[in-house]
Amino acid sequence: MSPVLRALVMALVVLLTPSALATPTAGSGADAGQPVQLVDLNRASVDELCTLPGIGRKKAEAIIALRERRPFTRVTQLLQIKGIGHKTLLKLKPRVTVTLAAAETAPAAEGARP
What is the pLDDT of residue 15? Predict the structure, then answer.
């Protein structure tokens, strides 16, 4: 087998291994190898937000203050928080989600009476 073909086969093997297709996992510590628990930006408490990398109590409180003004519709809105930049956002994206409230996703019923 030629070296080029061998390198191509090895690259395909690495890309198609089950670990590459698995859900994101925690990187180290007691939770290593466990699936990452997603944190909903519109529902999480300060303590839940503090479990995210790079998020302490002050940033968690800022996230909650921002969502109280207007619920999150996209994860990228975290960039509006002082101290959260693109590098932090990249670390957070696989660990956070945004679930819209029922009132925001349901269309208003026309002509509905109370």
Answer: 54
Residue 109 forms part of a structural domain: no
Cα 66 to the center of its chain, rounded Å: 17
What is the per-residue pLDDT for 19? Answer: 39
Q: Cα(45)–Cα(63) distance, rounded to whole angstroms?
A: 10
Distance, in Å, from the CA atom of 56 to the CA atom of 51, rounded to the nearest integer, reads 8
**CATH label of the domain that carries residue 82:** 1.10.150.320
pTM of the model: 0.61
17-56 pLDDT per residue, tens:
443 434 444 454 445 566 778 999 999 999 999 999 999 9
Q: What is the dihedral of CA 66, 73, 114, 111, to 10 degrees?
A: 140
d(CA 60, CA 48): 9
When divided into structural domains, the chain yields a total of 1
User: Which two three-digit tokens encode residue 42?
Assistant: 């519109």
